[in-house]
Design brief:
3-stranded antiparallel β-sheet, 9 helices, 10 strands
Length: 276
């Protein structure tokens, strides 16, 4: 697990967008060899999406040969509902870039057979060549996608029951009514995430500090699903100052030292994303 310490939430958005853009450009996707990108919803990746849209509009970053798979979707919420994850992604990202509609993939929370829907999604990921880069967030309790604490670390795309704290955290999207938040969702599994070539997790705010501490300094445990990414050879967490506040000083200093001269070219990304 690699930590990318950054000074602010906006810096996390800028850096992560530049990193994704760099990966797409280096890959040079075409119709026969598309770049496959996994995506989350929620407030944390919003700045990343806005930055990617700006790069598309101002720098010619193309998503024409990018295939996307979203992490999750609420069960029983109509696609047209403004709080569905499909609506969220269209509103904040897909409607503003040149991605082909046929290349956008979502789980269907309205499927008549949810088990078959999960199998379909896994098969579709495999037939697309697997995920090259999975962008994600982390919950206050260490959940990734909708894999709640105590989820099997070997699980694949499946039905997940949301904890009450997670529903409360998501209530801000439902007029602050936690009871309006669906109690279940379809989610990619932890093993599905681990099979991506790269995983980039975003963590901002003091509410994510405990999850970041466990991810970096804790043991691999079902109690904190994010810790499973310690087993991934190319997993990173990009954090702001508040999200690293519970790390040991020597841990933080170690990762800060790695950004000076390494293969992630941190200085290059910082210079490109510095608004000054």
């Amino acid at each position: 697990m690699r930590l990318i310490p950054l000074p602010s939430a906006s810096a996390v958005g800028r850096w992560s967008a530049r990193y994704i853009a760099c990966r797409i450009r280096e890959f040079a996707p075409d119709a026969q060899r598309p770049f496959v990108l996994g995506l989350p919803t929620g407030s944390t990746p919003l700045d990343t999406y806005h930055q990617l849209v700006a790069m598309h509009q101002n720098e010619g970053l193309s998503f024409h040969h990018v295939i996307t798979f979203n992490m999750d979707e609420y069960i029983g919420l109509p696609v047209s509902h403004p709080c569905s994850f499909r609506s969220f992604m269209e509103r904040h990202f897909f409607d503003h870039i040149d991605i082909q509609p046929a290349n956008i993939n979502f789980l269907s929370g309205e499927a008549s057979n949810l088990e078959q829907e999960c199998l379909r999604y896994e098969a579709l990921i495999q037939s697309s060549g697997g995920i090259h880069l999975f962008l994600g967030g982390v919950g206050h309790d260490g959940h990734i996608a909708f894999n709640m604490p105590m989820s099997p670390l070997s699980c694949r795309t499946r039905v997940s029951t949301l904890t009450e704290k997670t529903r409360q955290a998501n209530a801000r999207f439902f007029n602050d009514d936690s009871q309006a938040v669906p109690s279940q969702a379809l989610t990619v599994g932890i093993q599905t995430l681990l099979e991506a070539d790269e995983v980039l997790i975003l963590a901002t705010g003091s509410g994510k500090a405990m999850a970041v501490r466990e991810a970096i300094e804790g043991a691999v445990s079902q109690l904190f699903p994010i810790t499973a990414l310690q087993q991934h050879p190319q997993a990173m967490i990009a954090c702001d100052d508040a999200a690293v506040s519970e790390l040991k000083v020597k841990t933080l200093r170690y990762f800060e030292s790695l950004t000076i001269n390494d293969n992630i070219h941190m200085t290059d990304y910082t210079q490109k994303t510095n608004p000054s």
